[in-house]
Amino acid sequence: MLIARPVDIASYIYCPILYKNKKQYIVKPLTFFESCIRAALIEGERQALLRDTEVTPRMLLKAWDKIWWPAVIKKKISMAEADKYTLKATEILTSYSNYDLASYIYPTAGVLIGARLSVGRYTIEATTDLLKISLATKDKNTILVNFTNRDLDIHESALDPIIKCISYMFYYGNNESVSHVNVFIDARNNRVKTTMSRFDTEDMEEIRKMLYHVVHGISSKTFYPNVFMCKGCGRCKNLE
Q1: What does the H/E/C string look like for 132-174?
Q2: 54 and 78 assigned to the same domain
Q3: Same domain, 191 and 150
Q4: Does residue 122 lie in a domain region?
Q5: Does some domain include residue 136?
Q6: For residues 129 and 20, what is the distance between their CA atoms, to the nearest angstrom?
């Protein structure tokens, strides 16, 4: 079975030539500290789901202690440095709990949920950190939340192929919409920043066409440059 991930789709869209040569990395891996923050946020949301309550700072900090201190021992981090990072984490986690996203208005329905879609010989696989529902309106609206190190504005978030791919994977039709929230872990400024994109039925049809087109290009090894997404790096001139 051939697997394509959202990052593969995005890499191909940005530059098929670099994708072909495995030279393009759209998403940088989370740092060790950022990955611990993400794990604490997910664990805090998991506890809120199990207790049927909203996410609180205390809940997130307990999740941090559960994840951080065993990692400190394993990585042999000094206590002084560990305490410094814990102070940073406290500010970041507390900033998340201040968003409506962590309140009872947007309860979590699941954490680390995966989805698959078969397209020809390929299977597209995607995962969302959180799956939430909205009690604020009566509209059918699935809310996906992902904790990243990508600082996207509203325009970038609405056009981002990774976000589009993930959103389509959790679209179930019936005139519902899907909202994706990119939670940027801003370790430099000790906070999180959220950006929301919303996709309706018409948007999903355009995303479907894009996914099938890209997967067909990948499976048929038809690599052509996308002039609209080209960043002008010039590296493709040195590739066969």
Answers
A1: EECCCCCCCEEEEEEEECCCCCHHHHHHCHHHHHHHHHCCCCC
A2: yes
A3: yes
A4: yes
A5: yes
A6: 28
Per-residue model confidence as pLDDT tens digits over 155-168: 999 999 999 999 99
At 15-39, the pLDDT tens digits run 766 666 665 556 788 999 999 999 9
- Residue-wise pLDDT tens digits, 115-138: 999 888 889 999 999 999 988 777
Backbone dihedral angles phi then psi of residue 185, each to the nearest 5 degrees: -80, 100
Give per-residue burial for 71-109: e unless 16+ CB within 10 Å, then b. ebeeeebeeeebeebeebbeebbbbbbeeebbeeebbbe
- Dist CA 200 CA 171 (whole Å): 9
pLDDT-derived band of residue 222, with 50, 70 and 90 as boundaries? confident
Q: Do residues 6 and 112 lie in contact, with contact meaning Cβ atoms separated by under 8 Å? A: no
Whether 18 maps to a domain, the answer reads yes
pLDDT at 128: 98
The residue segments making up the domain with residue 47 are 32-102
